[in-house]
Design brief:
Length: 336
């Protein structure tokens, strides 16, 4: 044992054992801690383990004692608790912004912060139903490059999938070479976009990140945004909100009337704070605090034959306009 290189790291392995194998429901005695060390090929004396526990506590680890027939020890505060772990892993599963491979890697890293007993609570399978696929590894890599260029305030060069003019007034798909001063990344409606000054065309443009190829971060400093737009009072946040819809994300008090067949779906879609009232044998009403989003509009359209917006008037009018546009598209054969 004397030649075992792990022997000098005994206190570190003891901290690892406390992290991975103990919690409030699973404390360990000194004898059990010594056995766990022995399984790593590390010999220990009872007194030395007790001394190491005192040193780890003095160092800042929240090691608690459970006094019963035998004194038992466990690592208590880890910065996050089991509920935090479950919430974070569920958020990772729900996120469409993280590729599956990276999501699984992040989940593994989170779980290493907890005991083997608590990790099982984070292994609950969360069924995710979403029309938006997770971003690809290529898009995620592009996002990292773009973030780096924005932080460093450097211009970028890339090829962009777009429609290019061809002969005799025709058009073709191709890759256009772009040189851009990047200012902001935006994630909206399941897609990343870059806001930047397009040196080729001038002015600000929005570029879909999934259409960008061969991104290269140059050493040239980007153009100041106020110089790019010719306005010293330019508000980029307001510009972005205007592009994606000023009302998008705005809170509202939603009023609906719907057929009773939608009750289970309504119950799942809206929060427990929503107020549902029965109008008659067939019709119910709902009042709920919501935020206007493309997802809400899509949900209302999907169930359009069984649900009607009663409030706010702005949303009811928007749904009417969307319905009329769909009707015209599919009932006017000469439109396209």
């Amino acid at each position: 044992m004397a030649g075992n290189p792990k022997q000098k790291q005994k206190i570190l392995y003891l901290a690892k054992i406390l992290t991975e194998q103990t919690d409030e429901q699973h404390p360990m005695t000194v004898a059990e801690l010594r056995q766990a060390l022995a399984e790593q090929g590390i010999s220990s004396e009872r007194k030395s383990v007790s001394c190491d526990l005192e040193q780890l506590t003095a160092f800042g680890l929240d090691i608690q004692k459970v006094r019963s027939r035998e004194v038992r020890y466990y690592l208590a505060n880890r910065g996050l608790d089991a509920a935090d772990l479950e919430l974070l892993t569920d958020l990772l599963k729900l996120s469409r912004q993280v590729p599956q491979k990276r999501r699984l890697d992040l989940e593994r890293k989170l779980k290493r912060l907890f005991s083997v007993w608590r990790r099982s609570s984070a292994d609950r399978e969360l069924a995710v139903f979403s029309s938006a696929p997770p971003v690809s590894e290529r898009v995620y890599s592009n996002v990292e490059l773009l973030r780096d260029s924005i932080v460093r305030r450097k211009k970028i060069v890339f090829r962009y999938h777009t429609v290019l003019p061809a002969q005799k007034g025709q058009y073709r798909k191709g890759l256009a070479l772009c040189r851009v001063s990047p200012y902001r990344l935006v994630y909206a409606d399941g897609h990343y976009s870059l806001v930047g000054e397009n040196e080729t065309e001038g002015g600000l443009s929005f570029f879909e990140v999934e259409k960008m190829r061969e991104i290269f971060v140059t050493d040239e400093s980007r153009t100041d945004i106020r110089a790019a737009v010719g306005d010293i009072d330019f508000d980029l946040e307001q510009y972005i909100r205007g592009y994606f819809g000023e009302e998008n994300g705005a809170p509202l008090t939603l009023g609906l009337r719907f057929h009773r067949s939608l009750l289970p779906i309504i119950d799942r879609r809206f929060s427990s704070d929503a107020v549902i009232a029965q109008i008659d044998d067939e019709i119910y009403s709902l009042t709920a605090e919501e935020c206007l989003s493309s997802e809400l509009l899509e949900w209302l359209l999907r169930h359009g034959g069984s649900v009607r917006v009663t409030a706010p008037a702005m949303l009811a009018e928007k749904m009417r306009q969307l319905s009329e546009e769909l009707y015209e598209t599919y009932h006017e054969a000469t439109k396209f």
